[in-house]
Amino acid sequence: MANDTDAYCVPGATNFNKAYSRLHGYIALVICIVGSATNSINIAVLSRREMSSSTNSILTGLAVADLLVMLEYIPYALHMNIKIGPQVNKNTYAWTVFVYFHSIFSQTFHTISIWLAVTLAVWRYVAIAFPQRNRTWCNRKNTITAIVSAYVICPFLCLPIYFAMTIVPSEVTSKNNSEFAEDLALPQNRTVYLLEMSKNVELVTAIMWIYSVILKLVPSIALSILSTCLISKLTTTERRRQNLLKRSTVGPNEPEKQCLADDSNTRRSSRTDRTTRMLLAVLGLFLSTEVPQGLLGLASAVAPDFFKNCYSMFGDLMDMLALFTSSVNFVLYCSMSRQFRCTFARLARRMLYAAEEPAKFAAKLEPTTQAKLGNETCDYVLGHEEKK
Predict the structure, then answer these.
(1) For a designed S-S bond to 333, which of 13, 190, 304, 340 qualifies (C-beta 3.0 to 4.6 A apart)?
(2) Where does the record place the G-protein coupled receptors family 1 profile domain (predicted)?
(3) Distances (CA, A) of 4 to 1, 12, 83, 316
């Protein structure tokens, strides 16, 4: 096995896999818990009425997909990588079915995230390249249609993955019992279940082509092209702004009204550029994880033994990078969008106010009055806040 790995992969891949696999569960668990919280905040903030826009609707759909991936990955990491109390037998039929489900579920919703990122790039390019047609092409109806299409079509694109794996029963004997040493003490002649790649080499090769090209490389190429176009538009816009600033220098005979209009256009353009840069950062994170996976998947399609001897050595690492990419969007939004920061701050204050004020209000009431009012306290507080 080591010789095959060295022949198909970089030197030291097996040692790296053994070392990192001990840490992966804990790293992934932390990322998933933090990422679940941040994506929940993203959904809460981006779905606010004052944040309503086509771009934010797509970002909300993206956050939902990322949240589902992380919530599902938590039990997988606990089961496969972390030992809590008595060791859990990984090879029961039920747990093997769960791992089977995990492989399909996580890939499906990650694919949804990728194509929503492509949709986001298209919408943003239309907004800055064809602003006069933006409201027509990227209206709310078309945006909802694009989001729903991603959630409906991507599961069908990922359906071939279902046929790539199979659950295989195996008898535990004195010869292979060492393979399951991490499980509970397994009695002799007990049946365990393993999730293995299909023995049909042609089928697995075809699925690898679909995985690497359609699910990874095609959206990556689309993101690369759209990102390049967005950067080109940003450069052109920045050059135009600099020329505008030179022409808007106040002169003795220049109307003050025109100067104010130019300043307003400059500020509006600056906000548009900040939004575009934020979205470019999101797209860049997707590319940093999707391109390596696509290339490794393509190598597995060309050389079937590559998947077992090399791709699998870096499977946990690629999972961690994908989870990390899905968890840091909150940081990008806060650092690059003033509107997001302000809306998040207002939402946080409202939640704190709603949590603290009922207790203060109830403490001032007579016990009989408290019983009489009951659940009306929260309604009063929220109504009082809205009036303020």
Answers:
(1) 340
(2) 38-333
(3) 5, 12, 30, 20
Pair of tokens at residue 97: 């079915």
Q: Where are the strands (E) in 265-385, listed by range?
A: none
CA angle 84, 90, 96 (to 5 degrees): 135
pLDDT of residue 40: 95
pLDDT surpasses 70 at 56: yes
Asked if residues 376 and 370 have their Cβ atoms less than 8 Å apart, the reply is no
> Whose structure tokens read 């391109």?
291
List the one residue out of 320, 388, 311 whose CA is nearest residue 354: 388
Q: Contacts from 204-209 at CB under 8 Å and sequence distance 24+? A: 204/164, 204/304, 204/307, 205/301, 205/304, 206/160, 207/160, 207/161, 207/163, 207/164, 208/297, 208/298, 208/300, 208/301, 208/304, 208/307, 209/298, 209/301
CA dist., res. 145 & res. 126, Å (int) = 17
How do residues 331-381 score in pLDDT, each as one tens digit?
A: 888 877 888 889 889 888 888 877 666 656 555 555 544 444 444 433 333
- Comparing CA positions, the residue from 294, 326, 309 lying closest to residue 73 is 326
CB-CB contact of 45 with 344 (8 Å)? yes
Tokens representing residue 30 in the block = 């932390």
pTM value is 0.78
Tokens 């943003």, residue? 124
Stated as kind and residue range, the H or E segment containing 162 is none
